[in-house]
Design a protein that fits this description.
The complex is a heterodimer of chains A (178) and B (359). With 178 residues, chain A is an alpha/beta fold. In chain A, 30% of the residues lie in helices and 28% in strands. The chains are: A alpha/beta (178), B alpha/beta (359).
């Protein structure tokens, strides 16, 4: 059974608020790099970048990060040799990196993402922006910018849909078999 | 019907028919282009000492109902219309507009060519006017002799703090002549509200342990309120999430170094598209503006411009770069006005919630 907890309008507002908070925290957007975690984090990062562009008339670089080669929780995953970050035309060294993902759950994806970024250079800082924090962390990781905190049970699933791939903007809680 | 006159301080007189109170009245004359919401407009304290011209041809068709008061006692000085509806029908109606204006001793005048009048008001900003029985020399002398107070806020704002309890976030509203819509929208969001006089110090407000602070809308020129209030705002914005509305927006801008100017033509209505810059989306809201933030005076290292009026280019929203503090020139409480603007309150409550959890 799916229950919508964030609708399209609320998702837009959450991304808008996160954008303002990124400006607030970083005292401007100079030296900023957004890195979206594939798949949906990339679209969310793009939307934050377009908001920053609207507001500040500055293009913030957006990278796409594929963490599959860095994960520790997928059995038999082959060590990957291809670059984990694509579409980024700048180095991350000395940059203020904001990592963007749709759901923060165990924290393992973010751990993998940080390793992937560190392999490419030494950023000045890494912040984490997530649309949904659903709890149940297995690693000491927390988000700096949260769209919505949604307390969940372990057996529930959070389904984030974005217009670009799913044809709609929403966050749903899915319980039981769907 | 009794004939009466609307006379203006530039020497013109308009003959019309009396309705509402038979009193003689004087005030600054302004026009409002809203098609709906006359009851909310007449009862909004921002019209303190003002005579309101409605450009909508017929006013009064839905009477007056108990849900649409924006203040307990209206402080507008008069109502000018093309035609006042003799019959009003609405299931919530409890009074006709005529009865309502009699109860509150507000004169009205109908049968005025409001199209011609508005053309004049567009080029003659800030005229005074009277509604009188006889438009003779004596009446004009009286009109030219009136001195309207510039202390409107102290006339309409609460002199004492009061509570509007709820179970949610703790919100302090600084009252500069607030309209009920602000409290209504906070009640919808279950906020625990304390309304305080606008002269309350930052320390006294912070002692209430607010999760968020609202600087309310209100009448008049924000520059007449004195520097102490700006110092208070400067302290508060660094400590607690803050939302300024209308006059509160102008004060927020002043506190952060911008300047305010009187608009060449006051704009009162809800037909201007407002662009939210960050999302490039358009919204509509009720607006009532005689003053605006001077765009060139805004320190862009300190404030972000968040909303722009697409018709006259006026600044409709600001946000502090370093603190969770923002403001809107328009009225987001949809009383009257389109509902879409109420998301400003959602944004504000969300911001107070996040800060509240971090404590």
């Amino acid at each position: 059974m799916a229950k919508e907890v964030v609708d399209a309008m609320a998702m837009q507002r959450a991304l808008t608020r996160i954008t303002y908070e990124i400006i607030e925290r970083n005292r401007g957007i100079g030296n900023l790099v957004l890195i979206g975690v594939k798949t949906r984090g990339v679209y969310l990062a793009d939307r934050i970048a377009s908001r920053l562009h609207q507001l500040e008339d500055t293009v913030v670089p957006v990278g796409q990060l594929d963490v599959s080669g860095y994960r520790d929780d997928i059995a038999n995953s082959e060590p990957t040799t291809k670059a984990a970050i694509s579409n980024l035309n700048t180095s991350v060294t000395d940059k203020k990196v904001v990592l963007v993902d749709d759901v923060l759950f165990t924290g393992r994806t973010i751990r993998a993402a940080m390793d992937a970024i560190m392999d490419l250079g030494r950023p000045n800082s890494i912040n984490l922006a997530v649309l949904v924090d659903r709890g149940h962390r297995e690693l000491p990781i927390r988000a700096d910018f949260v769209g919505k905190n949604i307390p969940t049970a372990q057996n529930e699933r959070i389904q984030v849909s974005v217009n670009e791939v799913d044809g709609k903007d929403s966050v749903e809680i899915i319980t039981g078999k769907d | 019907m009794t004939e009466r006159y609307l006379i203006l301080s530039d020497g013109t007189a308009y003959k019309g028919q009396a309705f509402g109170s038979p009193a003689t009245t004087s005030g600054t004359i302004v026009f409002n282009t809203s098609v709906t919401g006359y009851q909310e407009i007449i009862t909004d304290p921002i019209y303190h000492n003002q005579i309101i011209v409605f450009t909508t041809p017929t006013i009064g068709a839905v009477g007056v109902n108990h849900e649409s008061y924006e203040s307990i006692l209206p402080t507008a000085k008069g109502v000018v219309v093309r035609e006042v509806a003799e019959v009003s029908t609405n299931r919530q109606r409890s009074l006709s507009l005529d009865q309502f204006l009699r109860v509150h001793n507000i004169p009205g005048i109908s049968g005025i060519d409001t199209r011609q009048l508005v053309r004049k008001l567009r080029t003659h900003n800030g005229l005074n006017a009277s509604i009188v029985d006889v438009a003779d020399e004596h009446a004009f002398d009286q009109l030219n002799a009136i001195v309207l107070t510039n202390q409107q806020v102290s006339q309409v704002a609460t002199p004492r703090p009061y509570a509007n309890p709820g179970m949610g976030h703790n919100i302090v509203v600084m009252d500069f002549g607030l309209k009920s819509g602000i409290l209504r929208e906070l009640a919808v969001r279950d906020a625990n509200v304390t309304v305080v006089p606008y002269t309350t110090t930052a320390d006294d407000i912070l002692n209430l342990d607010p999760d968020g602070i609202i600087l309310s809308s209100g009448p008049g020129d924000p520059r007449d309120l004195g520097k102490d209030i700006l110092t208070t705002i400067k302290t508060l914005e660094t400590r607690v999430p803050l939302l300024g509305i209308g006059l509160g927006h102008e004060l927020f801008a002043l506190a952060n170094g911008a300047t305010i100017q009187r608009l060449p033509v006051a704009h009162q209505g809800m037909n201007h598209p407002i662009r939210e810059i960050i999302t490039n989306q358009i919204m509509y809201a009720a607006q009532a503006e005689e003053y605006g933030v001077d765009r060139d005076s805004i320190n862009r290292d300190q404030l972000l411009i968040t909303h722009i009026d697409l018709i006259d280019g006026s600044i409709q929203g600001l946000r502090h770069r370093d603190y969770p503090a923002f403001s809107v020139q328009f009225f987001p409480d949809a009383a009257p006005g389109p509902w879409e603007a109420t998301q400003v309150f959602d944004d504000f409550i969300e911001l107070t919630g996040i800060r509240g959890e971090q404590h």
